[in-house]
Design brief:
Elements lengths: L16 E9 L6 E8 L5 E5 L6 H16 L7 H11 L6 H22 L3 H4 L8 E9 L2 H13 L4 E6 L1 E2 L8 E2 L14 H19 L4 E5 L6 H10 L7 E3 L10 H7 L4 E3 L6 H9 L5 E2 L9 H14 L2 E2 L9 H13 L6 E2 L5 H6 L10 E2 L13 H4 L12 H4 L11
Parallel strand pairs: 4-5, 4-13, 5-8, 6-7, 8-9, 9-10, 10-11, 11-12
Antiparallel strand pairs: 1-2, 2-3, 4-14
Helix pairs in contact: 1-3, 2-3, 5-6, 7-8, 9-10
Bound molecules: magnesium ion.
Length: 417
């Protein structure tokens, strides 16, 4: 029996939080975490995304053992106070594990708020400023030719934006396969060579423009693998191909040098998916380090901090480009879209095509239509997970958890990623 937390003031009515627990499921292979918040009102249940793919068990334990007991007995409408209480109550501020747990609660409370109001969450945020959110999908291939063929296929499906990653020697570039054993004389013949990447990437986009023409919006993710000077060199080399954005050019640990990269880069920089502090994300915006802020909404604590960052982006002339699936659940993806359609700061939305098992677990998961994501008009997020389906896909530890092991140089040293 959980001990109730004393509410700091009487609720407007008798509605109370009666249960909070994490659900972990892996219908697409990657473990996603969602949080279920139950209330004293019959049938009034909220769902939020707490997905931190690489540390899902730690997030579930944080929800069940540390966060849930603080919420029982509280009125679900006090979202700001509840999230502030969870954020501050561990004394040490949260990293991505606690913030993901917090996000699950936060988004579940917004879902409940929408259901109580009989409104979709984007209406609670002030309503639409656009009909839908333009999305980009990921094109990849084992080499430049295959990657551009994949991009052409995506564009032929009606998309206007596409991220392109080509593989190559060693472990490829991020998001695309490599060629094992590409450096046979090296201590780690499967390694990834930065100089080869710097030579090949401009060739990739030269070929992409030759084949795809002038019109498509082309994006590329460096995945934090370059030094400041290398990032500037790559950005300049890519100038003729007019990228829509260049993503995460340098490691998180060097973010105070982003303004240098941004000043020298001819294209917009999109940065921030590894940031787990709303204050750090705010400094990216106010410090001139980014053109598009792409935080992982659950990693910074949910919709409540994300909407504050969204307002800051609008006031500072920065765009949004939220990090997205497959390591965000459909609930989290719906939260992204609620923000996208309700802010003038919207830049672009990363998209994903969910396979059938995900739709079985998350009925109502959003899918793009002609390159756009439309929010659900149902109350809350409009997605009610099916726990019996979720139980069919138990999580297993996954290579996805081992970024550093997968990203070594030919000499064996670990590259950031
Ligand atoms: Mg990325």
């Amino acid at each position: 029996m959980m001990q109730e937390t004393q509410a700091p003031w009487p609720g407007r009515d008798g509605t109370r939080i009666t249960g909070v627990r994490a659900v972990v499921t892996a219908p697409e292979g990657l473990p996603v975490v969602v949080v279920r918040v139950e209330t004293s009102e019959p049938g009034l249940i909220g769902w939020g995304c707490a997905t931190f793919t690489q540390r899902y068990a730690a997030v579930a334990a944080a929800v069940d053992q540390h966060v849930a007991p603080m919420l029982i007995g509280r009125h679900p409408a006090d979202i700001e106070d509840i999230t502030r209480m969870v954020h501050l109550s561990s004394y040490w501020r949260g990293g991505p594990v606690l913030n993901s747990a917090l996000s699950g609660v936060d988004q579940a409370l917004w879902d409940i708020a929408g259901k109580r109001a009989n409104m979709p969450v984007y209406e609670l945020l002030g309503g639409r400023v656009r009909a839908a959110a333009a999305v980009y999908l990921h094109a990849s291939g084992a080499n430049i030719t295959e990657a551009v063929e994949d991009a052409a296929r995506i564009l032929s499906d009606g998309y206007r934006h596409v991220r392109i990653q080509a593989g190559g020697p060693g472990l490829g570039t991020y998001g695309a396969p490599g060629t094992p054993g590409a450096y046979p004389g090296s201590p780690n013949p499967d390694g990834w060579d930065v100089q080869q990447y710097l030579r090949d990437t401009p060739k990739l986009f030269a070929h992409a423009r030759d084949v795809l023409g002038e019109e498509p919006n082309l994006l590329h993710d460096v995945h934090h693998r370059l030094t400041v000077k290398q990032a500037i060199g790559l950005a300049r080399a890519l100038e003729p191909y007019r990228l829509f954005f260049l993503e995460d050019p340098i490691p998180l640990e060097l973010y105070d040098r982003l303004p240098e990269v941004r000043a020298a880069a001819p294209m917009p920089l999109a940065v921030g998916e590894q940031v787990a502090s709303v204050a750090d994300a705010a400094r990216l915006v106010t410090g001139g380090g980014v053109d598009l802020l792409r935080v992982h909404v659950s990693a910074i604590g949910g919709l409540t901090p994300a909407r504050k960052l969204t307002a800051l982006c609008e006031l500072f002339g920065v765009g949004t480009a939220w990090h997205a699936p497959a390591d965000v659940s459909p609930i989290g993806a719906a939260a992204n879209v609620a923000l996208d359609v309700s802010t003038p700061a919207f830049g672009i939305q990363e998209g994903h095509l969910w396979p059938d098992p995900v739709h079985d677990v998350f009925p109502g998961a959003l899918m793009p239509v002609n390159g756009y994501l439309y929010p659900s008009d149902r109350p809350g997020w409009g997605i009610e997970p099916d726990e019996r389906e979720a139980a069919k896909y138990p999580p297993v530890t996954h290579l996805f958890e081992r970024w550093a092991v997968q990203n070594r140089r030919p000499d064996g040293g670990i590259e950031p990623a």
